[in-house]
Amino acid sequence: MTFSLLKGLRVVELGESVSAPYCTKLLADMGAEVVKIERPGVGDQAREYGPFLNDQPHHERSGLFLYLNSNKQGITLDLDTPTGQEILGELLAKSQVFVHNLHPTEMDRLEVDYEALRTHNDQLVMASITPFGLTGPYRNYKAYDINLAAAGGICEGLGSPDKEPLTFGTPEVGYFAAMAAASSVVIALLAGQGQHIDIAEVESMAGIYNGPEALMAVYQWRMTRRTGHHALDFPYPNCILRCKDGYIFVGSPEGRQWRALLEVMGGPEWAKEGRFRNRTAMNNEHADEVDGYMEEWLLQHTKAELLVLALEHRIPLAPVRDFKEVRNDESLADQFAAIYRPDTGPVSFAGPPYSLYPQETTPPSPAPLLGQHNSDIYCDRLGYSKEELVKLYQTGII
Amino acid sequence: MSQNNPNLIAGPLERYRVLDFGWVLAGALPGMILADMGAEVIKVETRQRMDYMRLGRPIIGDEPDPEQHPLFHNVNRGKLSIAVNTTKPEAIDLIKGLVSHCDVVVENFSPGVMDRLGLGYDVLSGIKSDIIMASISSNGQTGPLRDLRAYAPSIGALSGLDSTMGYEGERPLGLKHAYADIAGALHSVFAIVSALHQRERTRQGQYIDVSMLRATVATMGVGLMEYELTGNVMAPKGNYDPVMAPYGNYPSQGDDAWVSIAVRTEEEWQGLKTAMGKPAWCEETPFESRYSRQENRRELDENLATWTRARTAEDITEQLQANGVAALPVMGAEDRLFNPHFKARGLYSDIEHPSLGTEPIYNIMWNLEQTPPSIRRHAPLLGEHNQQIFGGLLGMGKEDVARLEEDQVLW
Fold first, then answer.
1. Distances (CA, A) of B66 to B47, B61, B69, B376, B384
2. CB-CB under 8 Å, A215 with B149
3. How many CB pairs under 8 A join A and B?
4. In the prediction, which pLDDT does A317 show?
C-alpha cells in the first residue's frame, strides 16, 4: 500500500542491507519517488543474504532485498570513477533528499561529503547512517547487527545467567536507525533548509532503548540482568510460559488483572499463601516455583483458548506466535499485499503499519532488478542519449 | 541547566504545537521527540488516573511521589503539563478550546476512549479541519484484537519477534526491552511529520491509526520472508547469522564480561587471525572457508573463546577493530554512561529536575546539523503549566484558573 503524504518528493538512496533501504522504503511507502543506486554487477549485499525463493539462491530472489526495496526504482552506478561521481551530482541536483549508509571510511575514500555534494543542490537534505556516527573515537569502527545490539544494550539482559548473552534472532538494529533517519529527513524538510543529518545505528538502540536505564542505574534500579525467561523487579507474572500447544506470554501489571487470572484458574490454594502477597517478591524469589503452578493449568489450554480467555476477562495473555502463525493471522491480512513480478510471481510483503484517513492509496510496485531503471533515470530524467547509455554500460560505469 | 536553556537555537519544528495525551512509553515518546525538535508539547494529564510512569517507589523518602520517577523524567522532558479532570464536561470543553490552537494531537488510550470522552477525530477535525491526530494502540483501532490488554512483551509474542530469540532447541525467552512500544512510537513520529509535510502542501488534516503489532511486524523482514519464500518457520538458534561465523558474544576476562564478534568476509577472517597471532587451529580444515566456518561454528566458537577468555572485552575490541574486525563489548547502562565514545557524542545531558536535582537524561541522537534537537526543559510537574497554557492560549485570568483548580476541573 502506498500513501501520498510525501508525494512529489525525490529521494536518492545509496544503501545496503537494512538501514538505508528501510529508511527510503518508509519514504517510498508515503509516496516519495525513490531511486536506489547499486554497484554495477554486484548490487546491495541484501541480495546475497536471502532467504531465497524456494531456497534457490539468486541475487534477484532474496527475500530481504525484495521486501526492503519494493516501491523503488533501481539504477547501477560505479562511484569509484570520476564519471560516476559526476552523475551522482547530476542526480542530486534534481532531487531533494539523499540517504546513504556508506561506512565513514568509505565516505572518506569516495569523497561522499555533504559540503561537496551540496554544490550540486544547496537545498539538499542528506542523511548519513553509520554504525557509530560521523564523530567520536569509534567513528571508523566496524559493526554488524550483533555488535550494535551488544553495545546498544539489547544483549546484556537477554539470556540465562550461566550462558552467553543473546541477540535478536534476525537483523533488527537497522530498522531503528532507518526510522530515526526517515523522520529526521522529513523534519529537515519541514525546517526548510538543506542540511546534513548524522544518524548512528548504535545510538538508535543505546539512546532510545536504554537511555532511561542510565538514570535507573544512577538510582541503583537495574532492569536488565540476564534472568532467563523472567524479568527482574516486575510483579509476577511477566514471562513466557508453556501451554498445551506452545508458549504464551503471561502478564498482569495491574492487581485487577492478576485477580481475574486467578479467578479464571479456579482460585488455586497456592496463591493464597502469605509469601505470595507481594508479587514483586514472588517474581524475584519464587518465580521458578510459581511457574510450575501456573504451567500445570496453562498446559491444559491451547494458545487459541487462552487468547479467548484474555479477551473475555481482559487479562494480558498473548500467544508466542511463529512467523507462519503471524502471516496467517486474519486480523493482519490487510497489512500484507501480494506484489507481482514476472520472475518471482506474486510475493506477499508486510506493508506500512498505519491506517490513514482520509487518504487514497495505490498498490505498491515490486523491488527493482539490478539496473532495471537505468534507461528511465539516465535518459528520461538526466537527458543522456541511448548511445551515451550504452557507452556508460560498456565502460562499467553503470 | 535551569528551567529553560538559554543557549538553545530554534528547533526545526518550533512553529508547531502538540496536544499530547500520550502516556507510559509508546504514547509519551512521540511528544518527547517532537518537543526536542522544538514543538511546544502540552502533556494532558489527570490526577484521576496518573501516567503509570509517575507511579512506583520514590527515590527520596517512603511516600509515593509523582515527581520522582526516573523513567518519567526521561520520556517527558521538554513538555509542559496541564492537569485536566476529564470526568467533568467543563474540562472537555477546555480541551476542545486548546485543540483549535494545536497542530497535532497524540494519544494512546485503549481504543474507543477518545470517542467516549467526546474527543474523537470527527469532533476534533470539526474544531480544526487540518488537525493531525495520531492514535497509537497495541493492535489497532479496529479488528478482533482491538480490545486485547497488551503490553510490549505481548506484542513481542504476537509479532513473531520472540519466536527466534532463545538458545537453540530451548524455550523462547522474550526480549526485556519495550521493542514494540518503540517501534510503534517511531513509526508514529514518522507518520506525524509526513502528515505535517502533506499539510504544508495541501492544508489537509490526517487521522493516523498506528498499531504496535503492525509496527513490529514491519521490522520482521527476514522471518516473514523466510516463511513466505521457502515455507520454513524460524525457531531460536542462539546467536546465529546465516552468512557470518564467528557471530556471537564471547566470554572475556572479568565478572560476567562478554564481547561481541562478527566476521563476514575473508578479509575480516584474516584480520581476526592476525589479531590472535595466527594460532594453529585457524589453519585446520573445518575453518578453511567462509562456508566451512559457518558449518563448524560451534567448534569455531570454542576455539575463539579460549583466546577471548584471557583478555578484557575492551582490549579485544581495540585489537580486532585495529585489524578491521567488528567487535564491541556487551555493554550495560553504566558502561554506556561512562563510555568515551558516547561521552564525545553527547548521548546524555545533565538536566536539573526540581525534585531530584541533576540527572543524566538521554538525548534523541537525530543529529540534524543545522537545526539539532535539544532537551528544552526538565520533565514537568503535574499540572505545572495550567496557568501558562489556559492563560496564554484561552486568555483565562489567574483567578479563573485558580477557581477551576479548586473545583477540581483542572486537577
1. 10, 13, 7, 21, 12
2. no
3. 483
4. 98
How would residue B7 be classed by pLDDT, with cut points 50, 70 and 90?
low
Which residue from A minimizes the CA distance to B301? A164
In chain B, domain spans: 17-219+342-406, 247-330
* Average confidence (pLDDT) over B2-26: 80
Which of chain A's residues have a Cβ under 8 Å away from the Cβ of B171? 229, 240, 242, 247
Q: Does A38 touch chain B (CB under 8 A)?
A: no
Homologous superfamily of B247-330: formyl-coa transferase, domain 3 (3.30.1540.10)
pLDDT, position A212: 75
What CATH number does the domain located at A238-322 have?
3.30.1540.10
Whether chain B has a CB inside 8 Å of the CB on A338: the answer is: no
Put simply, the answer to whether A335 touches B361 (Cβ < 8 Å) is no
Query: Residue B5 pLDDT > 60, yes or no?
Result: no
Complex confidence, ipTM: 0.97
pLDDT at B1 over 50: no
Cell of B91: 474540562
Which is nearest to A131 in space by CA: A150, A118, A115?
Answer: A150
Q: What is the pLDDT of residues B268-289, one digit of tens each?
A: 999 999 999 999 999 999 999 9
Task: Using DSSP, state whether B261 is helix, strand or coil.
Answer: strand
Tell whether B260 lies on the interface with A, counting CB pairs under 8 A.
Answer: yes
Topology of B17-219+342-406 in CATH?
Rossmann fold (3.40.50)
Q: Which homologous superfamily does the CATH classification assign to the domain defined by A10-210+331-394?
A: Crotonobetainyl-coa:carnitine coa-transferase; domain 1 (3.40.50.10540)
CB < 8 Å from B in window 97-136 of A: 132-133, 135-136
CA distance A102 to A98: 12
Q: How confident is the model at residue B2 (pLDDT cuts 50, 70, 90)?
A: very low
The three cell numbers of residue B15 are 512553529
Question: Domain boundaries in chain A?
Answer: 10-210+331-394, 238-322
With DSSP H G I counted as helix, E B as strand and the rest as coil, what are the percentages for chain B, rounded to 5? Answer: 40, 15, 45
Taking only the tens place, the pLDDT of each residue in B70-104 is: 889 999 999 999 999 999 999 999 999 999 999 99
Contact B215 A144 (CB under 8 A): no
State how far the Cα of A202 lies from the Cα of B362, in Å rounded to an integer.
14
